[in-house]
Please model this.
Amino acid sequence: MNDSAPAKGASVPWNRPVQAAAIERILLPRSETCTCLTSSNFHCSKRSSCRPRIGKDKADKIVGDALRKWARDLYHRIGESKTGTPRQKWDTVWAEDMRPRIGDAVDRDMLKDDGTVCECNVTDCQYAEFFRALGESELGSILLCDSDFHVAAVGGPDVECKRTQTIMQGAAYCDFR
Model:
């Protein structure tokens, strides 16, 4: 097996053990102390470690708010690092940063792709399967599904992302329009 990084723009195949391990690193606390409550540098994203101490609703809100801000800031920084118009930045983020990471973890039916409008339905999502198996669909939505809107924001007014449902939330498919 070749451990080198994939070529830029290459599709990265879904490797359940490797990607599950990466997601678990995100989910598992780094220590017994719930640092998300004591640090502005968010470390603990496993809400279940906070829940017994402060209650489910409060822990979910703290972790959810921190993760949303982290994800928004992350994609903002990625977009800022790209050159070109907002639309060109979005195209680059999608082609170089998002699509290779998604790989074949999702199946989609392309409804329209004419260079200015892209509409599709994601019909299978292994990320949703993973987070639903953990009983953490909301966390999956924050970490993964919400990133669709953060990436679209990189494109400024030239890119609009509309989605009314996701597999992660229990729908049969994600509708991107």
About this structure: The radius of gyration is 17 Å. Strands lie at 106-113, 118-125, 174-176.
